[in-house]
Amino acid sequence: MTTVAPVRHRPTITRTAGDVGTVYRFVCSCGAAGEEHAARRMAQVDLNEHVLSLPKVPAAQQCRIPRAHGRSAWEPCGLCANQTSLFDLEAGQ
Ligand SMILES: [Zn+2]
Ligand SMILES: [Zn+2]
């Protein structure tokens, strides 16, 4: 049996020195990529649009300590989701 790993998004902006000068481009580990831009902020706009286009993570699965868990804002966190359900159980008693 094979488990299909969820697509992870690691959007970054690449900088390439071309013939016409430095160009910036948004690329994501999921395969998404933007156009080449002369200005970094234009590539940043593409990046922001991609992040905003991702499905919203349900509140219960949002990571509270993304740095510690290695999550990004657009990724559900199993660790935090478990903590929430534990907390709910305790609160209900
Ligand atoms: Zn992506
Ligand atoms: Zn977390």
Describe this structure in words.
This protein is an alpha+beta fold. The relative contact order is 0.14. It has three helices and three strands. It folds into two domains: 9-54, no CATH class; 56-93, no CATH class. It has a three-stranded antiparallel sheet with strand order 1-2-3, covered by helices on one side. The structure holds zinc ion (2 copies). One zinc ion binds at residues 63-65, 69, 71, 77, 79-80.
β-sheet strand percentage: 15-25%
Task: Please state the structural category.
Answer: alpha+beta
Number of domain units:
2
Number of strands: 3
Mean pLDDT figure: 86
Strand order of the largest sheet: 1-2-3
Main beta sheet: 3 strands, antiparallel
User: SSE order, as H and E?
Assistant: EEEHHH
Bound compounds, each kind once, are: zinc ion
Radius of gyration using CA atoms only: 18 Å
Q: State the helical fraction.
A: 25-40%
The number of helical segments is: 3
Label the overall shape: elongated
| Span of the ends, CA to CA | 39 Å
Detail the poorly predicted runs.
none
Question: What structural keywords apply?
Answer:
3 strands; 93 residues
Q: How is this fold's topology laid out?
A:
Blueprint: E1 12-18, E2 21-27, E3 33-37, H1 40-53, H2 66-69, H3 78-92
The protein binds zinc ion (2 copies).
